Amino acid sequence: MAETMSQDAAQVLFREGAMLLFLDVPPGTEFGIDCNSWHVGANFKGVKMIPPGIHFVYYSAVNADNQVAPRTGFFYNFRQREIVVRKWDRRAEDIKEETVSEEEMERFENNRKEFDRYLGVYPYESYKKWVSLTNHITEGLLLRLQPETAKIYAATQFVSEPSNSQSRREKLANQMEQQTTSSSSEEDILPDMVAKPETKIRFSEIPRQKFPPGATPVEITKYSMDTSYALETMLSTNVSENNLGILGEMEFAFICFLIGQVYDAFEQWKKLVHLLCTCEEALDTYPELFKQLIRVLHFQVGEIPEDFFVDIVSCNNFLTTTLQVFFANLDSSDVDVELRRRGLKFRDHLTHKLVGLCK
């Protein structure tokens, strides 16, 4: 249920909330923050009364034919009463790279009230939902995972591979040879394109080694089904903050694919869900981690649109089969009593949801 803002909360956010100035944005541009998005009008200059903390801002250019460009976004940890300024670059159809000068920032601070009527109010009614979806995302996690550009791109950013005179001559010779032996396709004459490394999300590597070095055949069989060793490896190498950091990455990936529309993030989310839900031995080692996992999955499943849930996740595919393993492990293992209770309650909730979707 959406939570409306009380008069007291409104006054506190008016005084203490952050402000995002998003200047020179063309009318019609799609703009969003967290769980809400709009097409901006001619007078739009940003958002006010933003609760302090981590938020996701995103936007898409729209052309004269109302065609929407792939989404671009960025995470930002807003401080109390902070003014954050971003300016639109019409040529690039993106925000400008240069930072705002101290003199400009001082002018914005002094004219804070003059901007007020041009700013939309942060959609507080969905704030509780946003917090529930990002509870484990920290600023340190963002610094580790987000691209070097600090932008999340829905479409992969490509650049042509560098070449020199010799490599170009060799490629031309190969093309001419192919033309004499077979029909060449258009792709043969296009430049070689690679993804820009600085635009890639730096997701953690899921361990390929599923069992410990020197494992016996019995152990190899065990850890091929029980991913506890792979989880232990990941917790000790990739997740730097604490054991719950893996849930922060899971939330980060979920936001990037559900709101940022990044398909690679969907793949990472699936891998993390599978890794965690197919653990058995680790249920006893990390009960708090798995209690929090249930909470994270509860809120995430609630946000997946039903058509997306059926078409992409599939009733006979990834999520239902993975969670069946998780619930079976909870039933068969000697786990924490509270963990089992939460797991069974979540299973009942999911059974009701999935029965309706999979009919």
Put simply, the count of helices is 15
The average pLDDT value, as a whole number, equals 86
Strand content: 15-25%
Gross geometry: globular
Low-confidence stretches: none
- Helicity level: 40-55%
Largest sheet: 5 strands, mixed
By secondary-structure content and strand pairing, the structural class works out as alpha+beta
Q: CA-to-CA gap between the ends?
A: 26 Å
- How are the strands of the largest sheet arranged? 8-7-1-4-9
Radius of gyration, in Å, reads 24 Å
Order of helical and strand elements:
HEEEEEEEEHHEHHEEHEHHHHHHHHH
Count all strands and give the number: 12
List the helices and strands and how they pair.
Blueprint: H1 7-16, E1 18-23, E2 30-33, E3 36-39, E4 46-50, E5 53-60, E6 72-78, E7 83-89, E8 94-95, H2 102-110, H3 112-115, E9 119-121, H4 127-133, H5 139-145, E10 152-153, E11 158-160, H6 165-181, E12 193-195, H7 217-225, H8 228-237, H9 245-258, H10 263-277, H11 281-285, H12 287-303, H13 306-313, H14 318-332, H15 337-357
Helix pairs in contact: 9-10, 10-14, 12-15, 14-15
